[in-house]
């Protein structure tokens, strides 16, 4: 299995408003689109997306106003080292509402919110394009179980850990991945809380090399077979983490970079 994180999907209530927001403030380009009878899917990313980089998928279901819930935390985008303050100010000057400024975050990061309330963290990285996806954060109820799932099922490695008095963050990524690749952040709160999955967050996607062989390997490793490739014309399948976060496993056309080039 390739193992790279390919994209993260969020659901939006007003597709054009969200497109305008991400294209204006994060300078994203539309990379791909699929129009269904009752839904539209659009892939966005920086103009120069690294081959190992991830994209943002917006899904709009007609007539739906999705709730966010708290089982998912945020996506993080990159700004160059030393430019956190200026990047945050650029967003404010462009009309983005002030949410968590760099000063309130110890000068290390900052947060804004998208049109539907999705939290977007700004982190400082010199690798990858400005505003490219750095990681996506999900909340878990058992850190050891969650780390074990990603390690055993997808062969991810623990790349970093940060602990506070009341919670811990764990960063996971595929073995040997490039600095431009997106990573996964697991947040574990020590107070034993549980979380709600609402419709505002959809899934994260992992790239396969051989759809059927990789899927069979996941089934051998006893990953939940939520939606098999056989149900999706052999092009993608879905499994779930122990905490219920959906994971798409898919093939990406390496020449067109399109998910829909079947």
Keywords:
single chain, 262 residues, alpha/beta, seven-stranded mixed sheet, globular
Helix % is 10-25%
In DSSP terms, counting alpha (H) and pi (I) runs of 4 or more, how many helices?
A: 4
Q: What is the element string, with H for helices and E for strands?
A: EHEEEEHEEEHEEEEHEE
Low-confidence stretches: none
* Percent of residues in beta strands: 35-45%
Task: Give the CA-based shape.
Answer: globular
Structure in words:
This protein is of the alpha/beta class and 262 residues long. The protein has a single domain, classed as 2,3-Dihydroxybiphenyl 1,2-Dioxygenase, domain 1 (Roll). Helix content is 16%, strand content 36%. Strands 2-3-4-1-12-14-13 form a seven-stranded mixed β-sheet, with helices on one face. A seven-stranded mixed β-sheet has the order 6-7-5-8-11-10-9. The longest helix is centred in the middle third of the chain and has 12 residues. It is globular, with a radius of gyration of 18 Å. The chain starts with a strand and ends in a 12-residue tail after the last strand.
């Amino acid at each position: 299995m390739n193992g790279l994180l390919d994209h993260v999907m969020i659901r939006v209530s007003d597709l054009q408003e969200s497109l305008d927001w991400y294209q204006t403030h994060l300078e994203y380009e539309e990379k791909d689109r699929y129009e269904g009878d009752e839904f539209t899917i659009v892939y966005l990313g920086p103009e120069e997306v690294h081959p190992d980089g991830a994209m943002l998928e917006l899904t709009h279901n007609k007539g739906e106003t999705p709730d966010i819930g708290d089982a998912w935390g945020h996506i993080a985008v990159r700004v160059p080292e030393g430019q956190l303050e200026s990047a945050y100010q650029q967003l404010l000057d462009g009309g983005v509402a002030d949410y968590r400024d760099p000063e309130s975050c110890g000068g290390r990061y900052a947060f804004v919110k998208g049109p539907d309330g999705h939290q977007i963290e700004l982190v400082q990285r010199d690798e990858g394009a400005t505003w490219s996806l750095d990681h996506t954060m999900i909340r878990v109820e058992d850190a050891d179980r969650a780390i074990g799932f990603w390690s055993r099922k997808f062969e991810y490695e623990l790349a970093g850990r940060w602990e506070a008095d009341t919670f811990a963050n764990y960063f996971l990524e595929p073995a040997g991945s490039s600095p431009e690749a997106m990573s996964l952040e697991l947040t574990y709160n020590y107070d034993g809380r549980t979380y709600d999955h609402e419709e505002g967050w959809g899934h994260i996607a992992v790239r396969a090399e051989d759809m059927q062989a990789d899927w069979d390997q996941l089934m051998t490793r006893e990953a939940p077979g939520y939606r098999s490739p056989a149900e999706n014309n052999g092009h993608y399948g879905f499994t779930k983490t122990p905490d219920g976060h959906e994971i798409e496993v898919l093939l990406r056309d390496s020449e067109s970079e399109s998910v829909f080039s079947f």
